Amino acid sequence: MTALASLDKSKIRFLLLEGVHPSALDVLRAAGYSAIETVAGALSEAELTDRLADVHFLGIRSRTQLSAAVLARTPKLVAVGAFCIGTNQIDLDAARDRGIAVFNAPYSNTRSVAELVLAEAILLLRGVPEKNAMAHRGGWLKSAEGSYEIRGKTLGIVGYGSIGTQLSVLAEAMGMQVVFHDVVHKLPLGNARPAGSLPELLAASDIVSLHVPELPSTQWMLDEPELAMMKPGAILLNASRGTVVRIEPLARALRERRLAGAAIDVFPVEPRTNQDAFTSELRGLDNVILTPHIGGSTVEAQANIGVEVAEKLVRYSDNGTTTSSVNFPEVALPAQAGKHRLLHVHRNVPGVLSEINRVFSEGQVNIAAQYLQTRGGIGYVVTDIDAASSERALQQLSRIPGTLRSRVLF
Ligand SMILES: NC(=O)C1=CN([C@@H]2O[C@H](COP(=O)(O)OP(=O)(O)OC[C@H]3O[C@@H](n4cnc5c(N)ncnc54)[C@H](O)[C@@H]3O)[C@@H](O)[C@H]2O)C=CC1
Ligand SMILES: O=C(O)CCC(=O)C(=O)O
Protein backbone atom coordinates (compact mmCIF):
# COMPACT_ATOMS: atom_id res chain seq x y z
CA MET A 1 0.00 0.00 0.00
CA THR A 2 1.25 3.47 -0.85
CA ALA A 3 0.31 6.64 1.02
CA LEU A 4 1.17 9.87 -0.72
CA ALA A 5 0.77 13.23 0.95
CA SER A 6 0.06 16.11 -1.43
CA LEU A 7 3.40 16.62 -3.12
CA ASP A 8 4.75 19.92 -4.23
CA LYS A 9 3.90 19.90 -7.96
CA SER A 10 7.55 20.31 -8.84
CA LYS A 11 8.17 16.88 -7.27
CA ILE A 12 5.48 15.04 -9.23
CA ARG A 13 7.38 13.26 -11.96
CA PHE A 14 6.04 12.66 -15.47
CA LEU A 15 7.71 10.44 -18.06
CA LEU A 16 6.37 10.77 -21.62
CA LEU A 17 7.55 8.15 -24.13
CA GLU A 18 7.15 7.54 -27.86
CA GLY A 19 7.24 11.16 -29.00
CA VAL A 20 4.05 12.30 -27.31
CA HIS A 21 3.05 15.63 -28.92
CA PRO A 22 4.40 18.83 -27.25
CA SER A 23 0.79 19.94 -26.68
CA ALA A 24 0.81 17.52 -23.73
CA LEU A 25 3.79 19.31 -22.20
CA ASP A 26 2.03 22.65 -22.64
CA VAL A 27 -0.98 21.37 -20.71
CA LEU A 28 1.16 19.87 -17.92
CA ARG A 29 3.31 22.99 -17.59
CA ALA A 30 0.28 25.29 -17.59
CA ALA A 31 -1.10 23.18 -14.72
CA GLY A 32 2.10 23.79 -12.74
CA TYR A 33 4.02 20.54 -13.38
CA SER A 34 7.68 20.91 -14.29
CA ALA A 35 9.36 17.52 -13.64
CA ILE A 36 8.60 16.16 -17.11
CA GLU A 37 10.97 13.89 -19.02
CA THR A 38 10.39 12.92 -22.64
CA VAL A 39 11.79 10.05 -24.72
CA ALA A 40 11.37 9.78 -28.50
CA GLY A 41 10.87 6.01 -28.76
CA ALA A 42 9.62 3.13 -26.63
CA LEU A 43 11.86 1.52 -24.00
CA SER A 44 12.78 -2.12 -23.44
CA GLU A 45 11.29 -3.82 -20.39
CA ALA A 46 14.54 -3.43 -18.44
CA GLU A 47 14.96 0.26 -19.34
CA LEU A 48 11.31 0.93 -18.62
CA THR A 49 11.41 -0.68 -15.19
CA ASP A 50 14.52 1.28 -14.38
CA ARG A 51 13.04 4.61 -15.46
CA LEU A 52 9.71 3.98 -13.72
CA ALA A 53 11.17 3.57 -10.22
CA ASP A 54 10.38 7.15 -9.24
CA VAL A 55 7.77 8.16 -11.83
CA HIS A 56 4.24 9.17 -10.77
CA PHE A 57 2.63 9.62 -14.21
CA LEU A 58 3.60 7.76 -17.38
CA GLY A 59 2.59 8.68 -20.94
CA ILE A 60 2.90 6.09 -23.73
CA ARG A 61 1.53 5.32 -27.18
CA SER A 62 1.04 1.89 -28.75
CA ARG A 63 4.57 0.46 -28.56
CA THR A 64 5.31 0.48 -24.83
CA GLN A 65 4.40 -2.85 -23.30
CA LEU A 66 3.15 -2.39 -19.74
CA SER A 67 2.93 -5.96 -18.55
CA ALA A 68 1.92 -7.12 -15.07
CA ALA A 69 5.62 -7.76 -14.38
CA VAL A 70 6.58 -4.17 -15.25
CA LEU A 71 3.65 -2.72 -13.29
CA ALA A 72 4.67 -4.78 -10.25
CA ARG A 73 7.85 -2.71 -10.11
CA THR A 74 6.35 0.78 -10.26
CA PRO A 75 6.03 1.73 -6.58
CA LYS A 76 5.11 5.38 -7.20
CA LEU A 77 3.07 5.12 -10.39
CA VAL A 78 -0.33 6.77 -9.95
CA ALA A 79 -1.66 6.78 -13.51
CA VAL A 80 -0.85 5.95 -17.13
CA GLY A 81 -1.93 8.05 -20.09
CA ALA A 82 -2.19 6.11 -23.35
CA PHE A 83 -1.85 8.86 -25.95
CA CYS A 84 -3.82 6.77 -28.47
CA ILE A 85 -7.02 4.70 -28.71
CA GLY A 86 -5.81 1.13 -28.18
CA THR A 87 -4.93 0.05 -24.63
CA ASN A 88 -4.08 -3.57 -25.49
CA GLN A 89 -0.39 -2.80 -24.75
CA ILE A 90 -1.28 -2.33 -21.07
CA ASP A 91 -2.31 -5.06 -18.65
CA LEU A 92 -5.35 -3.05 -17.54
CA ASP A 93 -6.45 -5.47 -14.83
CA ALA A 94 -2.97 -5.62 -13.32
CA ALA A 95 -2.83 -1.81 -13.34
CA ARG A 96 -6.27 -1.55 -11.70
CA ASP A 97 -5.40 -4.16 -9.08
CA ARG A 98 -2.36 -2.05 -8.15
CA GLY A 99 -4.47 1.11 -7.96
CA ILE A 100 -3.02 2.61 -11.17
CA ALA A 101 -5.60 4.44 -13.28
CA VAL A 102 -5.32 4.32 -17.08
CA PHE A 103 -6.66 6.98 -19.46
CA ASN A 104 -6.69 7.16 -23.27
CA ALA A 105 -7.97 9.31 -26.15
CA PRO A 106 -10.81 7.32 -27.67
CA TYR A 107 -11.68 9.65 -30.57
CA SER A 108 -8.96 12.14 -31.47
CA ASN A 109 -7.20 10.14 -34.21
CA THR A 110 -10.21 8.35 -35.71
CA ARG A 111 -10.64 10.71 -38.66
CA SER A 112 -6.93 10.36 -39.53
CA VAL A 113 -7.25 6.57 -39.77
CA ALA A 114 -10.41 6.77 -41.87
CA GLU A 115 -8.79 9.21 -44.32
CA LEU A 116 -5.67 7.07 -44.70
CA VAL A 117 -7.47 3.82 -45.44
CA LEU A 118 -9.77 5.48 -47.96
CA ALA A 119 -6.77 6.96 -49.75
CA GLU A 120 -5.07 3.56 -49.75
CA ALA A 121 -8.16 1.93 -51.20
CA ILE A 122 -8.08 4.41 -54.11
CA LEU A 123 -4.35 3.93 -54.73
CA LEU A 124 -4.57 0.14 -54.62
CA LEU A 125 -7.57 0.02 -56.96
CA ARG A 126 -5.47 1.96 -59.46
CA GLY A 127 -2.38 -0.22 -58.98
CA VAL A 128 -0.41 2.87 -57.94
CA PRO A 129 1.92 1.12 -55.47
CA GLU A 130 3.20 -1.19 -58.26
CA LYS A 131 3.40 1.54 -60.89
CA ASN A 132 5.20 3.78 -58.40
CA ALA A 133 7.68 1.03 -57.46
CA MET A 134 8.34 0.28 -61.11
CA ALA A 135 8.92 3.95 -61.98
CA HIS A 136 11.42 4.20 -59.09
CA ARG A 137 13.30 1.29 -60.66
CA GLY A 138 13.29 3.01 -64.07
CA GLY A 139 10.25 1.16 -65.49
CA TRP A 140 7.10 2.60 -67.13
CA LEU A 141 3.80 0.80 -66.62
CA LYS A 142 1.22 2.90 -68.43
CA SER A 143 -1.82 0.67 -68.57
CA ALA A 144 -5.50 0.67 -67.57
CA GLU A 145 -5.49 -3.06 -67.00
CA GLY A 146 -6.52 -3.92 -63.44
CA SER A 147 -7.16 -0.23 -62.64
CA TYR A 148 -10.60 0.67 -61.35
CA GLU A 149 -12.55 3.62 -60.01
CA ILE A 150 -13.67 3.40 -56.41
CA ARG A 151 -17.18 4.49 -57.38
CA GLY A 152 -19.66 1.64 -57.24
CA LYS A 153 -17.30 -0.78 -55.47
CA THR A 154 -18.32 -2.56 -52.28
CA LEU A 155 -16.40 -1.75 -49.11
CA GLY A 156 -16.70 -4.24 -46.25
CA ILE A 157 -15.98 -2.68 -42.86
CA VAL A 158 -15.20 -5.06 -40.00
CA GLY A 159 -15.75 -3.26 -36.69
CA TYR A 160 -18.35 -0.48 -37.09
CA GLY A 161 -17.12 1.75 -34.25
CA SER A 162 -15.67 5.27 -34.25
CA ILE A 163 -13.32 4.63 -37.18
CA GLY A 164 -15.51 2.18 -39.08
CA THR A 165 -18.50 4.54 -39.08
CA GLN A 166 -16.45 7.54 -40.25
CA LEU A 167 -14.98 5.46 -43.03
CA SER A 168 -18.50 4.39 -43.95
CA VAL A 169 -19.64 8.00 -44.42
CA LEU A 170 -16.53 9.01 -46.39
CA ALA A 171 -16.77 5.93 -48.61
CA GLU A 172 -20.42 6.55 -49.43
CA ALA A 173 -19.55 10.13 -50.35
CA MET A 174 -17.15 8.63 -52.93
CA GLY A 175 -19.99 6.53 -54.36
CA MET A 176 -19.13 3.23 -52.69
CA GLN A 177 -21.57 0.62 -51.37
CA VAL A 178 -20.85 -0.15 -47.73
CA VAL A 179 -21.48 -3.37 -45.82
CA PHE A 180 -20.30 -3.85 -42.26
CA HIS A 181 -19.90 -6.52 -39.63
CA ASP A 182 -19.85 -5.89 -35.89
CA VAL A 183 -20.49 -8.07 -32.85
CA VAL A 184 -22.72 -5.34 -31.40
CA HIS A 185 -25.93 -4.17 -33.07
CA LYS A 186 -25.04 -0.85 -34.74
CA LEU A 187 -27.18 1.77 -36.44
CA PRO A 188 -26.21 1.77 -40.13
CA LEU A 189 -25.18 5.24 -41.32
CA GLY A 190 -26.40 6.45 -44.71
CA ASN A 191 -27.15 3.51 -46.97
CA ALA A 192 -24.67 1.14 -45.32
CA ARG A 193 -26.09 -2.25 -44.43
CA PRO A 194 -25.06 -4.90 -41.97
CA ALA A 195 -23.72 -8.15 -43.41
CA GLY A 196 -25.26 -11.31 -41.98
CA SER A 197 -21.84 -12.58 -40.89
CA LEU A 198 -18.12 -12.08 -41.43
CA PRO A 199 -18.02 -14.73 -44.22
CA GLU A 200 -20.91 -12.96 -45.94
CA LEU A 201 -19.04 -9.64 -45.78
CA LEU A 202 -15.83 -11.21 -47.07
CA ALA A 203 -17.62 -12.80 -50.02
CA ALA A 204 -19.42 -9.56 -50.95
CA SER A 205 -16.63 -6.98 -50.69
CA ASP A 206 -14.18 -5.63 -53.27
CA ILE A 207 -12.27 -4.02 -50.42
CA VAL A 208 -12.21 -5.20 -46.80
CA SER A 209 -11.09 -2.79 -44.08
CA LEU A 210 -10.51 -3.92 -40.50
CA HIS A 211 -11.33 -1.67 -37.53
CA VAL A 212 -11.64 -3.96 -34.52
CA PRO A 213 -9.71 -3.70 -31.24
CA GLU A 214 -7.09 -6.25 -30.22
CA LEU A 215 -9.01 -8.83 -28.20
CA PRO A 216 -8.77 -12.60 -27.77
CA SER A 217 -11.83 -12.80 -30.05
CA THR A 218 -10.20 -10.73 -32.83
CA GLN A 219 -6.87 -12.57 -32.80
CA TRP A 220 -6.12 -13.97 -36.26
CA MET A 221 -9.68 -13.10 -37.27
CA LEU A 222 -8.45 -13.12 -40.87
CA ASP A 223 -6.50 -16.34 -41.13
CA GLU A 224 -6.09 -18.61 -44.19
CA PRO A 225 -9.76 -19.76 -44.35
CA GLU A 226 -11.12 -16.21 -44.07
CA LEU A 227 -8.65 -14.86 -46.62
CA ALA A 228 -9.81 -17.61 -48.97
CA MET A 229 -13.39 -16.37 -48.56
CA MET A 230 -12.48 -12.97 -50.02
CA LYS A 231 -13.42 -12.25 -53.64
CA PRO A 232 -10.67 -13.06 -56.15
CA GLY A 233 -8.85 -9.80 -56.87
CA ALA A 234 -10.09 -8.12 -53.67
CA ILE A 235 -8.06 -5.73 -51.50
CA LEU A 236 -7.37 -5.95 -47.76
CA LEU A 237 -6.73 -2.94 -45.52
CA ASN A 238 -5.55 -3.41 -41.94
CA ALA A 239 -5.01 -0.36 -39.74
CA SER A 240 -6.40 -2.02 -36.60
CA ARG A 241 -3.91 -4.31 -34.84
CA GLY A 242 -1.21 -6.64 -36.13
CA THR A 243 -2.70 -9.65 -34.38
CA VAL A 244 -5.91 -9.49 -36.40
CA VAL A 245 -4.47 -10.79 -39.71
CA ARG A 246 -2.21 -13.82 -40.16
CA ILE A 247 0.64 -12.55 -42.31
CA GLU A 248 1.93 -15.80 -43.93
CA PRO A 249 -1.32 -16.73 -45.75
CA LEU A 250 -1.84 -13.07 -46.65
CA ALA A 251 1.62 -12.87 -48.22
CA ARG A 252 0.89 -16.07 -50.17
CA ALA A 253 -2.45 -14.77 -51.46
CA LEU A 254 -0.79 -11.52 -52.58
CA ARG A 255 2.14 -13.27 -54.26
CA GLU A 256 -0.26 -15.57 -56.11
CA ARG A 257 -2.47 -12.57 -57.00
CA ARG A 258 -5.56 -14.18 -55.48
CA LEU A 259 -5.75 -10.85 -53.68
CA ALA A 260 -4.92 -7.79 -55.81
CA GLY A 261 -3.35 -5.75 -53.05
CA ALA A 262 -3.17 -4.81 -49.41
CA ALA A 263 -2.35 -1.86 -47.19
CA ILE A 264 -0.98 -2.89 -43.82
CA ASP A 265 -0.23 -0.35 -41.09
CA VAL A 266 0.05 -2.68 -38.09
CA PHE A 267 2.10 -5.84 -37.61
CA PRO A 268 2.33 -8.74 -35.15
CA VAL A 269 5.78 -7.44 -34.17
CA GLU A 270 6.63 -3.77 -34.65
CA PRO A 271 10.01 -2.05 -34.18
CA ARG A 272 10.31 -0.26 -30.85
CA THR A 273 12.00 2.82 -32.27
CA ASN A 274 12.64 4.35 -35.69
CA GLN A 275 16.23 3.11 -35.46
CA ASP A 276 15.18 -0.57 -35.22
CA ALA A 277 14.82 -2.73 -38.33
CA PHE A 278 11.41 -3.72 -39.68
CA THR A 279 11.03 -7.29 -40.86
CA SER A 280 7.95 -8.77 -42.53
CA GLU A 281 7.12 -11.37 -45.13
CA LEU A 282 5.22 -8.61 -46.92
CA ARG A 283 8.38 -6.66 -47.68
CA GLY A 284 9.25 -6.58 -51.36
CA LEU A 285 5.68 -7.10 -52.60
CA ASP A 286 4.92 -4.20 -54.93
CA ASN A 287 1.16 -4.62 -54.57
CA VAL A 288 1.35 -3.93 -50.83
CA ILE A 289 1.44 -0.54 -49.11
CA LEU A 290 3.42 -0.91 -45.88
CA THR A 291 3.19 1.90 -43.38
CA PRO A 292 4.86 2.11 -39.94
CA HIS A 293 1.74 2.24 -37.75
CA ILE A 294 0.93 5.83 -38.71
CA GLY A 295 -2.84 5.52 -39.13
CA GLY A 296 -3.37 8.05 -36.34
CA SER A 297 -0.14 9.96 -36.88
CA THR A 298 -1.23 13.34 -38.16
CA VAL A 299 -0.31 16.68 -36.67
CA GLU A 300 -3.98 17.39 -35.97
CA ALA A 301 -4.66 14.07 -34.25
CA GLN A 302 -1.47 14.06 -32.19
CA ALA A 303 -1.95 17.65 -31.02
CA ASN A 304 -5.52 16.89 -29.94
CA ILE A 305 -4.51 13.64 -28.25
CA GLY A 306 -1.71 15.43 -26.38
CA VAL A 307 -4.18 17.91 -24.90
CA GLU A 308 -6.93 15.36 -24.21
CA VAL A 309 -4.82 12.83 -22.33
CA ALA A 310 -2.66 15.38 -20.51
CA GLU A 311 -5.84 17.07 -19.26
CA LYS A 312 -7.12 13.73 -17.96
CA LEU A 313 -3.84 13.17 -16.09
CA VAL A 314 -3.94 16.69 -14.64
CA ARG A 315 -7.56 16.27 -13.50
CA TYR A 316 -6.65 13.02 -11.76
CA SER A 317 -3.52 14.47 -10.20
CA ASP A 318 -5.17 17.72 -9.10
CA ASN A 319 -8.68 16.56 -8.13
CA GLY A 320 -8.76 12.76 -8.14
CA THR A 321 -11.18 12.87 -11.09
CA THR A 322 -11.22 9.58 -13.02
CA THR A 323 -13.94 10.32 -15.58
CA SER A 324 -13.50 8.17 -18.73
CA SER A 325 -10.70 6.04 -17.26
CA VAL A 326 -10.55 2.72 -19.11
CA ASN A 327 -9.85 0.60 -16.02
CA PHE A 328 -10.83 2.58 -12.93
CA PRO A 329 -14.04 3.44 -11.09
CA GLU A 330 -15.23 6.79 -12.44
CA VAL A 331 -15.51 9.52 -9.83
CA ALA A 332 -15.78 13.28 -10.35
CA LEU A 333 -16.43 15.26 -7.19
CA PRO A 334 -16.42 19.08 -7.43
CA ALA A 335 -13.56 20.64 -5.46
CA GLN A 336 -14.49 22.50 -2.26
CA ALA A 337 -12.58 25.58 -1.20
CA GLY A 338 -10.68 25.18 2.05
CA LYS A 339 -11.06 21.39 2.24
CA HIS A 340 -8.48 18.68 1.85
CA ARG A 341 -9.33 15.70 -0.36
CA LEU A 342 -8.44 12.13 0.58
CA LEU A 343 -8.28 9.55 -2.19
CA HIS A 344 -8.45 5.91 -1.15
CA VAL A 345 -8.10 2.99 -3.56
CA HIS A 346 -8.75 -0.43 -2.06
CA ARG A 347 -9.61 -4.01 -2.84
CA ASN A 348 -13.36 -4.24 -3.28
CA VAL A 349 -14.18 -6.35 -0.23
CA PRO A 350 -17.04 -5.74 2.21
CA GLY A 351 -16.39 -3.39 5.09
CA VAL A 352 -13.70 -1.04 3.71
CA LEU A 353 -16.02 1.99 3.54
CA SER A 354 -17.11 1.45 7.13
CA GLU A 355 -13.44 1.18 8.17
CA ILE A 356 -12.73 4.46 6.36
CA ASN A 357 -15.65 6.18 8.04
CA ARG A 358 -14.67 4.71 11.41
CA VAL A 359 -11.34 6.58 11.05
CA PHE A 360 -13.29 9.81 10.50
CA SER A 361 -15.84 9.28 13.26
CA GLU A 362 -13.27 8.20 15.86
CA GLY A 363 -11.12 11.19 14.94
CA GLN A 364 -14.15 13.51 15.12
CA VAL A 365 -13.50 14.50 11.51
CA ASN A 366 -16.40 16.15 9.74
CA ILE A 367 -16.95 14.86 6.17
CA ALA A 368 -17.74 17.67 3.75
CA ALA A 369 -18.33 15.36 0.75
CA GLN A 370 -17.78 11.70 -0.05
CA TYR A 371 -18.19 9.39 -3.03
CA LEU A 372 -17.47 5.67 -3.45
CA GLN A 373 -17.40 3.89 -6.80
CA THR A 374 -16.32 0.33 -7.50
CA ARG A 375 -15.14 -1.42 -10.66
CA GLY A 376 -13.88 -4.95 -11.05
CA GLY A 377 -11.85 -5.82 -8.00
CA ILE A 378 -11.30 -2.31 -6.62
CA GLY A 379 -13.14 0.49 -4.86
CA TYR A 380 -12.26 4.20 -5.02
CA VAL A 381 -13.42 6.61 -2.32
CA VAL A 382 -12.99 10.38 -2.52
CA THR A 383 -13.62 12.25 0.74
CA ASP A 384 -13.33 15.97 1.45
CA ILE A 385 -12.53 16.90 5.05
CA ASP A 386 -11.19 19.80 7.10
CA ALA A 387 -7.55 20.62 6.38
CA ALA A 388 -6.38 20.21 9.98
CA SER A 389 -7.21 16.50 10.11
CA SER A 390 -5.99 15.33 6.71
CA GLU A 391 -2.39 14.21 7.42
CA ARG A 392 -3.38 12.04 10.37
CA ALA A 393 -6.42 10.62 8.58
CA LEU A 394 -4.24 9.74 5.57
CA GLN A 395 -1.87 7.73 7.73
CA GLN A 396 -4.78 5.86 9.29
CA LEU A 397 -6.51 5.21 5.96
CA SER A 398 -3.30 3.79 4.51
CA ARG A 399 -3.27 1.16 7.27
CA ILE A 400 -6.79 -0.16 6.56
CA PRO A 401 -6.51 -3.78 5.32
CA GLY A 402 -7.08 -3.95 1.55
CA THR A 403 -5.69 -0.45 0.88
CA LEU A 404 -3.88 -0.20 -2.47
CA ARG A 405 -3.14 3.52 -2.65
CA SER A 406 -4.06 6.60 -0.67
CA ARG A 407 -3.31 10.25 -1.36
CA VAL A 408 -4.22 13.60 0.04
CA LEU A 409 -4.74 16.60 -2.22
CA PHE A 410 -4.77 20.23 -1.21
N1 LIG B 1 -3.37 2.27 -37.04
C1 LIG B 1 -3.50 3.19 -36.13
O1 LIG B 1 -2.68 4.10 -35.99
C2 LIG B 1 -4.69 3.16 -35.25
C3 LIG B 1 -5.30 1.98 -34.94
N2 LIG B 1 -6.41 1.95 -34.15
C4 LIG B 1 -7.03 0.65 -33.87
O2 LIG B 1 -8.35 0.68 -34.38
C5 LIG B 1 -9.20 0.04 -33.45
C6 LIG B 1 -10.62 0.50 -33.63
O3 LIG B 1 -10.74 1.85 -33.26
P1 LIG B 1 -12.17 2.50 -33.01
O4 LIG B 1 -13.01 2.40 -34.21
O5 LIG B 1 -11.93 3.86 -32.44
O6 LIG B 1 -12.73 1.55 -31.88
P2 LIG B 1 -14.24 1.35 -31.43
O7 LIG B 1 -14.18 0.69 -30.11
O8 LIG B 1 -15.00 2.62 -31.56
O9 LIG B 1 -14.80 0.32 -32.52
C7 LIG B 1 -14.44 -1.01 -32.58
C8 LIG B 1 -15.64 -1.80 -33.05
O10 LIG B 1 -15.24 -3.15 -33.24
C9 LIG B 1 -16.32 -3.97 -32.81
N3 LIG B 1 -15.84 -5.33 -32.57
C10 LIG B 1 -15.21 -5.81 -31.48
N4 LIG B 1 -14.93 -7.13 -31.65
C11 LIG B 1 -15.40 -7.46 -32.87
C12 LIG B 1 -15.42 -8.65 -33.61
N5 LIG B 1 -14.92 -9.79 -33.14
N6 LIG B 1 -16.00 -8.63 -34.83
C13 LIG B 1 -16.55 -7.50 -35.33
N7 LIG B 1 -16.56 -6.33 -34.67
C14 LIG B 1 -15.99 -6.31 -33.45
C15 LIG B 1 -16.83 -3.26 -31.59
O11 LIG B 1 -18.13 -3.68 -31.24
C16 LIG B 1 -16.77 -1.81 -32.02
O12 LIG B 1 -17.97 -1.39 -32.63
C17 LIG B 1 -8.58 0.42 -32.09
O13 LIG B 1 -8.95 -0.49 -31.09
C18 LIG B 1 -7.11 0.38 -32.37
O14 LIG B 1 -6.62 -0.90 -32.11
C19 LIG B 1 -6.95 3.11 -33.65
C20 LIG B 1 -6.38 4.31 -33.93
C21 LIG B 1 -5.18 4.44 -34.70
O1 LIG C 1 -0.21 6.64 -32.67
C1 LIG C 1 0.08 5.63 -32.04
O2 LIG C 1 1.14 5.46 -31.46
C2 LIG C 1 -0.91 4.49 -31.96
C3 LIG C 1 -2.17 4.72 -32.68
C4 LIG C 1 -3.07 3.59 -32.39
O3 LIG C 1 -2.85 2.50 -32.82
C5 LIG C 1 -4.21 3.80 -31.50
O4 LIG C 1 -4.60 4.96 -31.28
O5 LIG C 1 -4.76 2.80 -31.04
UniProtKB/TrEMBL annotation:
It catalyses: (2R)-3-phosphoglycerate + NAD(+) = 3-phosphooxypyruvate + NADH + H(+); (R)-2-hydroxyglutarate + NAD(+) = 2-oxoglutarate + NADH + H(+). Pathway: Amino-acid biosynthesis; L-serine biosynthesis; L-serine from 3-phospho-D-glycerate: step 1/3. The keyword Oxidoreductase applies. Its EC number is 1.1.1.399, 1.1.1.95. Gene3D superfamilies: 3.30.70.260, NAD(P)-binding Rossmann-like Domain. Keywords: NAD, Oxidoreductase. Residues 341-410 form the ACT domain. Belongs to the D-isomer specific 2-hydroxyacid dehydrogenase family. Catalyzes the reversible oxidation of 3-phospho-D-glycerate to 3-phosphonooxypyruvate, the first step of the phosphorylated L-serine biosynthesis pathway. Also catalyzes the reversible oxidation of 2-hydroxyglutarate to 2-oxoglutarate. This is D-3-phosphoglycerate dehydrogenase. It comes from Acidovorax lacteus.
